[in-house]
Design brief:
The structure is a homodimer. Chain A is α/β, with parallel strands linked by helices. The first copy, chain A, is built from 14 helices and 7 strands. In chain A, 54% of the residues lie in helices and 12% in strands. A 7-stranded parallel beta sheet of chain A has the order 3-2-4-1-5-6-7, with helices on both faces. The radius of gyration of chain A is 21 Å and the shape is globular. The first copy, chain A, starts with a helix and ends with a helix. At the A-B interface, helix 3, helix 7, helix 8, helix 9 and helix 12 of A face helix 3, helix 6, helix 7, helix 8 and helix 11 of B.
């Protein structure tokens, strides 16, 4: 590690907010020169409790995350929020509407809030978000809330890079939106029905409970965690203490049963494989003009199908991997 | 090719609907034994005009696709619809609500409608959808409408496996939803504002036109296609002929300028790389118990970071790729 990098890593490990913010920015920009620093950071991370919070647009998850962060603060924890923010490569900016609602806690020094957005590939956003989690973890934040929109594989991968996954549902969302959500319901350790002051909230709670009759326990082998459904209201504050308490209880459950080892296994696996895929993807991009281009020409000419071509190309890439 | 497979391929090439449906079902099930048949099918595909249609949930794209299919039918074309349907591995079923609205055209023999859903990985859904497009293409369908929900990289990859991409926006969707959509706006060759009978439709049209001031032409080099914004109403039928005509015009533009070659390049590339990634992913899964497991243990123990581990693992996988 070069001296400036080592200095930055030391500052992060000492919990200095500005150093933390700076390193996250460099990770987000895809700065390859900070890779050794991130590798070092990774080795020091692993103490924080990572809580993934996901839900479809309009489910009220941002408001919930803000309220939940305050609860953990009140319990004496340092809290960080990392939000994956869908952004347009077109406009070049992230959409900050949701985050503005977090202003009420944004000034407390024991809180760190970061919206992640990249101008490039979606895979890059997932990677940078997980780097940010490591940095905050190594920097001494005890609870890290990872907020994602529950759509798309990248978002699911990121939210599953957490020990406890909270899925937020909301009364009154259309069927079309519920359809997308279907894919994320089964990753929940804890279900939350937000906006429970609404009159149609009971229906949503009942729908979830009905669904849970089929699968009462969360996924991993031998697990006996019974998935709760918690009603919350950011307006009245109802259910927020219950939720914070339930997250703590799930954390203790993971440790007591050593279920946490299975989670760590899954997290390391998903993340490493994703990175390997991205490396493959960039190798393809880099070798565009060579052999790969010739194979793709045959795909375009319909002389060979994409599946056979992929197998051919992987063989070619193998030879170039060490370079 | 074995005799039963060859027979099935011949029936597909002769345009027999039942054979087409059967092969799509096998592709969707991930049946590896139909891989040679699909390779053969791929070599015969490539004549259809592929139109990707995407938009966020609630944008009215399913209704639009149904109406558009009727327009192409009326113009004398055989039309197929392939819809990527988000499905829950939990319930094991696809959500068919949207498709029901298509019943009015589903009985015409010159129309083929298929909702694709898989119980497994999202990557598998994208792959099966593109296989289905090949099968329909080789089976003589002249226009294939590929409908996806505009969220997630898989969906974007699939919709970009089309020559003409239509992005559907709708008046009155919340900001949170628009945020997700931001990522797909820039892939449009044609913008559609649906539900233009609504009073707030003008605002949506103006927002899109405002955005297009920054980037009037669609992406590929040297292209001079000026991206239109078309207002449609499935209720009154307004704009549907314009849209069908515009899609035809875009098709002629692609051929006249040879822009179609660049699109074919991009399509072959995206698809082949995606398959290569999936192969890598399944290799990882298969080698779980061996060297890979040991490397992942070091990631879990925080002795090595995921990035360095990915590079190590790719080197190991190389050796196993031919087996």
């Amino acid at each position: 590690l070069g001296t400036p990098s080592k200095h930055l890593v030391d500052e992060v490990l000492a919990g200095q907010t500005r150093a933390i913010a700076r390193l996250i920015t460099r990770a987000e920009a895809g700065d390859e020169e900070c890779r050794p620093a991130l590798a070092e950071i990774y080795r020091h991370a692993g103490s924080a409790h990572l809580v993934g919070i996901t839900g479809v647009p309009g489910s009220g998850k941002s408001t919930l995350v803000s309220a939940l962060a305050q609860k953990f603060l009140a319990r004496g924890h340092k809290v960080a929020v990392v939000a994956m923010d869908p952004s347009s490569p077109f406009s070049g900016g992230s959409i900050l509407g949701d985050r503005i609602r977090m202003n009420d806690i944004a000034c407390d020094p024991r809180v760190f809030i970061r919206s992640m957005a990249t101008r490039g590939a979606l895979g890059g956003l997932a990677r940078a978000s997980l780097d940010a989690v490591d940095i905050l973890d190594a920097g001494g934040f005890e609870v890290i809330l990872i907020e994602t929109v529950g759509v798309g594989q990248d978002e699911i991968d990121v939210v599953q890079a957490a020990y406890t996954t909270v899925v937020v549902s909301s009364p009154g969302l259309g069927d079309d939106i519920q359809a997308i959500k279907a894919g994320i319901l089964e990753i929940a350790d804890i279900h939350v029905v937000s906006k429970c002051d609404r009159s149609d909230a009971n229906k949503t709670v009942n729908d979830l409970k009905q669904m849970l009759l089929l699968n009462t326990y969360s996924e991993t082998n031998g697990s006996k965690w019974s998935i709760p459904v918690i009603s919350t209201s950011a307006t009245t504050g109802q259910g927020l203490d219950d939720l914070a308490e339930m997250i703590d209880r799930h954390r203790r459950y993971l440790t007591d049963t050593d279920e946490i080892s299975a989670r760590r296994q899954r997290m390391a696996e998903t993340r490493t494989i994703k990175i390997a895929e991205n490396i493959i993807r960039s190798k393809f991009a880099a070798q565009q003009r060579g052999t790969i281009s010739k194979t793709l020409q045959r795909v375009i000419a319909r002389q060979v199908d994409p599946h056979s071509a992929a197998i051919e190309l992987l063989a070619v890439l193998n030879e170039g991997l060490d370079k």
